[in-house]
């Protein structure tokens, strides 16, 4: 059956791969990110390739008013969101705790925690009205294992873990599924963003092993979203075979 899938952070990486995967299944999509041009290009690609409908929702998840206004202004057809994938997120910097930049910490907290809360809170009334829906949050191995120089990024992903749990508990009566998908290293624009455009540093992260691709993670998310109505995957950690968890990797 055709569903409406709302993906935040769909202009790149895991979010974009999710949009492509669900579109290939014939689902209609709401795609979010701040880069309007990328959203327009993706809408064109998906509508032409898969004969589906796509709504672009360009907003900054950090901005509370923007999030609520944009979502409440969705045309009625689009308010019936079946699946929300909270992929918008980022890491900034890999400094030691005492050397890290406050502005980086604040941006990570505002995006990875506040942003996820705002979008979920804005969509939930429409799911609750129908006693149906599925929220899929992008956690990380970094939420399970704090690593050196990961400090606040790891903390935001631990927060996602707790929020994921809290949502599932409090939304039990509404039969809304809540899932935390926790990938290890995935080669996307993530490291380029983390190292503020330094391509050499970003490429080094994926040297000596074969990381996950965004499509690998999208496949897993699609699986979580395609199980029978009575089944919920509460959390799922996924890594490439060179990585055992958030700390131990085998690189050549
Ligand atoms: P990318 O950098 O490739 O994509 C990040 C996406 O988030 C972009 O579409 C970006 O869009 C969007 N985004 C960032 N800030 C905002 C904002 N303020 N408002 C709206 N959208 C925003 O990274 P990934 O795809 O790898 O990351 C996606 C998620 O997966 C993140 O939550 C990340 O923490 C998590 N993750 C990533 C892993 C990895 O190794 N890559 C591993 C584990 C988890 P735009 O810039 O257009 O706004
Ligand atoms: C992204 C994976 O290992 O860079 O969440 O923290 S890692």
Concise description?
With 252 residues, this protein is α/β, with parallel strands linked by helices. It has a single domain, classed as Rossmann fold. It is built from nine helices and nine strands.
What is the tally of beta strands? 9
CATH architecture: 3-Layer(aba) Sandwich
List cofactors, ions and other ligands: NADPH dihydro-nicotinamide-adenine-dinucleotide phosphate, 2-hydroxyethylsulfonic acid
CATH superfamily: NAD(P)-binding Rossmann-like Domain
Beta-strand residue percentage: 15-25%
CATH fold naming: Rossmann fold
Query: How would you describe the shape?
Result: globular
Q: Stretches where pLDDT falls below 50 for ≥5 residues? A: none
Please list the strands of the largest sheet in the order they lie side by side.
3-2-1-4-5-6-9
| CATH C-level name | Alpha Beta
Number of helices: 9
- What is the residue-averaged pLDDT? 98
Overall tally of structural domains: 1
**Could you describe the largest sheet, including whether it forms a barrel?**
7 strands, parallel
Query: Roughly how many Å is the radius of gyration?
Result: 17 Å
H and E string: EHEHEHHEHEHEEHHEHE
Task: Describe how the helices and strands are arranged.
Elements lengths: L3 E5 L4 H12 L3 E6 L2 H15 L3 E5 L5 H9 L3 H4 L3 E4 L15 H29 L3 E5 L12 H20 L6 E7 L2 E2 L2 H5 L4 H7 L6 E2 H11 L10 E4 L14
Parallel strand pairs: 1-2, 1-4, 2-3, 4-5, 5-6, 6-9, 7-8
Helix pairs in contact: 1-2, 1-9, 3-5, 5-6
The site of 2-hydroxyethylsulfonic acid has 7 residues, from loops.
